[in-house]
Structures are given as structure tokens and as C-alpha cells.
Amino acid sequence: MLRFPQKRSARLWKLVLPLSSVVLCFYILELVFRVFVYLNLVDYPKADYAKIIHRYSYNPELVYEMKPSFSTYDKGVLVMTNGWGIRDREYSLLKPPGVVRIAVIGDSVAFGPRLKSEDTFSKLLEVRLNSLQPGRYEVINFSVIGYNSAQEEIVLKEKVISTKPDVVILAFCMNDDTYTDGLGDLARQMHPSSIGPRLHSKLLSYLLHRWERRHFVSRSSFTQIEHLFEQLSILGRRERFQSVILIFPFYFDDIHTYPLKEKHRTVGNLANKYSFPVVDLMERWGALSPSERRRLYPPEDNIHMTTLGMQETTKELMKRLTTLSSERN
């Protein structure tokens, strides 16, 4: 029988004992934390994967995406995805002859939470355009709640380009430059880059996620926005599509005191750098009375649009697209 020398065994035991104590303490803390979660004493997400519309993406940079051919109710509204995993009806990947295909890329504002699909500006725009030339237009909504500019660039390259669009509408929201915006609803289960889920530890996931949110909450960068605009320009020339930048403002009481005016100007200047037509709704909203402007947003929500807000957005887009059509002809 092999025997370790006594001194070596003693050294090994000194190493094993502390490590075992740490592991045991961690398991005890994990057990206590799970009891706290079970008793709702900790704000820990409890998403039902059978009902949640999102799934983790194979692309870690995209983080998450919507499940294909799936339906669920969100705040009383039926949300359905097609075979591509987007909130829209089924489309042929091969663009039909004579059809003008418009792709919309954006986050929750363009997605339209709490709204029926037919009340989003994508579908309203499709109806308006086809009322002029029946069956000629397809407006496809690739927007996903929580996406930022970096994720929207991936959507452009991996999902939109293959559909051969004639026009790409980028719906820009005022928080698209942030990093936390891209963590999204499903990622609250915890971000896949965190080691917690890999160890099946709710406690570690919780701690790492809280650190992650605090770490990124103060970070924002126009670098990812400019890179997206640059790719829109490069791919637009190569794939022969036009791009339109649609800028959504947050709600404001008074245009003169609206704190994000400078960001609107920065995005507009960036769009001009790449010769993109711009539809900045801040200008249109600023001409409204406070009561009219408030009706464009849901109560206690200063970011998303009501059906009326989507209708007004569609009107402004129609003006721009009509101008584009005239310029092309």
C-alpha cells in the first residue's frame, strides 16, 4: 500500500480543510438564499421558460432573441412571432417580384409593448403604403425589446440582409447608446456571461448580476451607434438599400427644457455624416401642446408610444418615404 509521507499529508490536509470549509459555507449560503427566493424575500426573477417569449441566442454578443413560431400574452396583449422569430406575420425569404420590402430595426419602442401588432408603426405603415399601391409593400418588424445599437447591428447583418430589403428604418431610442439596455428581460435570469448559471448557483448569479448592472449603468458610448451607422452605409451600398433614421424622443413637458436635445442633434449629425435621411420626432412633438403630447405616451411611461403615438409616427414616416420615392424616380 502506498503511503504519503506524514509531512506531505499534513500539508495536504491544511489545504483541503479550508477549501472544504469554504465550499460547505457556500452551499449553506446558497440554500439560505434559495429559501429567501422561495419566500419572495429577495427580488429574484422567476421567469416561466414555457411562457417567456425570449431565449438565449447562440451568438453571445446578441445575448437573447425571440423564440420562433411562439405566442404568449404580455400584459393582456397577445404577442406572436413568426418562423424567423420576429413579431410579425410569415414572409417568404425570397422577396416577391415587384415588392418593395422595408425592414424596421429597433428596440421596445418600435416593438410596441402593450400594443397589438397591427397598432405598431410598422404595420400601420404597411397598410398606409398598400392603400396607395395594393400588395406592393412589405414592412417587416425586426425590433426586439431591450436591444441596443450593438445588438441591432447583429440583427442587421444576421437577419435583415438575407431578406433583401429596399429600405431599412432604424428606430433610434434615446437609450440605445447604453450597455444595460441590452441586458433585457430574459437576461435578468442572469446574463450568460456570468459564471453563476454555469454553476447552477442562484446566489452567485444574483450577486454578479447586481455588480454587472452597477458597473455598466453609468457607461454609455456613441461608438457602437456610429459603428452601426457605418455598417448601414457600407451594407447599403453593397446590398443596394436605403436607410432612414427615425429618432424617438422621451416624453417632455417643454421642448425648451427637454434635457436630451443635444443627443438628438448628435444622432442627427451622425446620420448626416453618412447621408441618411432623418425623421426626428422631437421636432414634431415639440409643436404640440402638452396635453396633446402626453396622449402619445401611456400613463406613467415616458418612453413607449400609445396607438395614437404610433399613428403620428406613421404620418411622419409617410412624408419622408414619399420624398425618398420622388428622389429615386
Structural overview:
With 329 residues, the chain is of the alpha/beta class. The protein folds into 2 domains: 1-42; 54-328, 3-Layer(aba) Sandwich (Rossmann fold), CATH 3.40.50.1110. Helix content is 43%, strand content 12%. It has 10 helices and 9 strands. It has helices spanning 6-38, 108-111, 121-132, 149-160, 202-217, 223-239, 261-273, 281-286, 290-294, 307-328; strands spanning 54-56, 64-66, 71-74, 77-80, 100-105, 137-141, 167-172, 242-247, 278-280. It has a 5-stranded parallel sheet, sandwiched between helices. A two-stranded antiparallel sheet has the order 1-2. The longest helix is centred in the first third of the chain and has 33 residues, at 6-38.
Mean pLDDT: 86
How much of the sequence lies in strands comes to 5-15%
Number of domains: 2
Note the main sheet: 5 strands, parallel
Order of helices and strands: HEEEEEHHEHEHHEHEHHH
Q: Classify the helix fraction into a percent range.
A: 40-55%
Principal-axis shape: elongated
Return the CATH architecture of the largest domain: 3-Layer(aba) Sandwich
Number of helical stretches of at least 4 residues: 10
Broad CATH class of the largest domain: Alpha Beta
Low-confidence stretches: 182-190
- How many distinct beta strands? 9
Oligomer: single chain
Fourth CATH level, the homologous superfamily of the largest domain:
SGNH hydrolase
Q: Any idea what the radius of gyration is?
A: 24 Å
Q: State the secondary-structure class.
A: alpha/beta
Q: Looking across the biggest beta sheet, what order are the strands in? A: 6-5-7-8-9
Distance separating the two termini: 92 Å
CATH fold-level name of the largest domain: Rossmann fold
